[in-house]
């Protein structure tokens, strides 16, 4: 955590997708508290996030969450020095809810607002454990909407090495789970079913693995392969519970294998032997285990945020906001601007943040 003589208190707001979250961080004391309201139950019956419903739920929950967080930690709005909020990437309606509230509240208090890049916050999340990150490192950022590899030379210096050309890893899990008639979110559902699956019964394609030094991802073909396999098995009336488990095992292996292979390629190309894995898919146990084993072959180290900081949260937004505030990056004219497709290598461009 960056230390300062005068303590700075930052309120963080996260509304990029289907998690409504708030947090308070202190520049000297670290994370004070954070809270999350998950919309999983709301979206489960639709098999995925419904953007309009997500936005409405943020509107309902955000202010009560902030009020309760401050009250339960003996804080008042007058104690806040700045308000950090997710400005992108994400669902445009959900982002606007957070931006409007953050800027309106900041304006009423006469304090700055701080737009934060959601994926930058993810790659900084391990700092919430109390230790600073050893630079440089490779960041594998994997979630429902994003899959990318980033070379991080220092805070604020990001080079995009590769990204998904179609579905994100988390999206591939969700779509695969729907094909297997499993619950949303798909990642945990497939991981649980895969535990009873037999290895080697099925094999799924892992696109773009043979292209030398290519660090982009592709998962749409994997989902299509699963769909055709299920259709074939259904026609033969062979889709038993055990076969579903075998399919889940192979499907998870293919996604995890692709993520590890591309990360290994990034280490080979850059020579950097420190890796941070963040984002919701970073909570996958098979990914954690197999990544550690693979990187050990290169004498490389891998770091993960605590599970609660892998998924979307406001603690990481408050942290990134604190760093930006201390660098002088803040919004004092309270523009209501968001960027649902904000690229991580364009955060600190000469033109503008957004």
Short overview:
This protein has 354 residues and is an alpha/beta fold. The chain has helices spanning 40-44, 51-72, 92-109, 118-124, 169-179, 186-194, 220-235, 241-270, 285-296, 307-310, 314-326, and strands at residues 9-14, 19-26, 30-38, 82-88, 113-117, 137-142, 147-154, 157-163, 274-278, 301-303.
Please describe what this structure looks like.
This protein is of the alpha/beta class and 354 residues long. It is 42% helix and 18% strand. The strands form two sheets. It has a five-stranded mixed sheet with strand order 3-2-1-4-5, with helices on both faces. The longest helix has 30 residues. The radius of gyration is 21 Å and the shape is globular.
